[in-house]
Design goal:
about 280 residues, binds zinc ion
């Protein structure tokens, strides 16, 4: 119980850093310095006013200097990050899986909010993620039933589980990034305006997701992300004037779906295979 609480506090602190990434990376600013400033008056935030969650509550969501209100998104991101790290710890304990899925989850949280707020999926985050996803596949096996089956069909047998896991990660990348690139290209030729449908950020995001999750969970992510987008986007677009012709952040839906797939995806796939009689 005590350890869970300390893990949660660490998560809150990481959440503070995620806020910095979310607000600075889309502008191409440094995430290391300068110190956090009030978005209204520009006064640097003192260390004691920068305690996750607590400072926001104590200051009632206002800057100590200019009294203008601070977005509730800051404490929300801190809370989400705390819960993410806690959930990952409860599921995996202190293992390599814990590191893999906490870092993956935090990268997803950054992209969920940069896409939601600015419609930007920074390449700095996705390229770092792709590098990390493929590297950590040598430590934590990536689910690869489908990619291994494909390799066997082509007459190739990976010599070790590490090689199999790495190839599963690469296969996930090709599936995730490739399918989005293909859809984007088709739209480009059909309509001559690919950017309106799928940006290259989405391609990079799905390449990253594929490198961490492998083929099956990447497919599930695409399916759930599209479903979520349709369930939320279509009704709002047709009933609410404000959302008429709204540019939906597809990356946000995909990010939420990828987060879900990392924790509950295998259970969903097992359930589907059972009810469909495939296993
Ligand atoms: Zn201020």
């Amino acid at each position: 119980m005590m350890i869970s609480f300390i893990v949660f506090l660490f998560g809150l602190a990481f959440g503070s850093f995620l806020n910095v990434c979310i607000h600075r990376l889309p502008k191409g600013e440094s995430i290391v310095k300068p110190r956090s400033r009030c978005p209204h008056c520009g006064k640097p935030v003192a260390a004691w006013d920068n305690i996750p969650l607590l400072s926001y509550l104590v200051l009632r969501g206002r800057c100590r200097n200019c009294q203008k209100s601070i977005s509730p998104l800051y404490p929300f991101v801190e809370l989400l990050t705390g819960l993410l790290i806690l959930l990952t710890y409860r599921q995996f304990g202190f293992t390599a899986e814990f590191i893999k899925f906490s870092v993956f989850g935090m990268l997803l949280l950054i992209l969920i909010f940069t896409d939601l707020q600015e419609r930007i999926i920074p390449h700095a985050v996705t390229i770092f993620g792709i590098f990390l996803g493929t590297s950590i596949s040598w430590l934590v096996p990536v689910e690869g039933a489908a990619s291994t089956w494909l390799l066997h069909r082509m007459g190739f047998f990976p010599p070790t589980w590490e090689a199999e896991s790495f190839l599963a990660s690469v296969a996930g990348m090709i599936l995730g990034g490739g399918s989005f690139y293909l859809v984007g290209t088709v739209f480009y030729y059909l309509k001559g305006k690919r950017k309106d449908y799928l940006g290259f950020g989405d391609v990079m995001l799905m390449t990253m997701v594929g490198s961490f999750l492998g083929m099956s969970l990447t497919l599930l992510t695409i399916f759930l992300g599209s479903l979520l987008g349709a369930l939320i986007g279509v009704p709002l677009e047709y009933t609410t004037k404000r959302f008429h012709g709204y540019e939906w952040p597809f990356g946000t839906f995909l990010g939420v779906a990828a987060l879900f797939s990392s924790f509950g995806g295998n259970a969903v796939i097992d359930w589907y295979l059972r009810v469909s009689g495939l296993s």
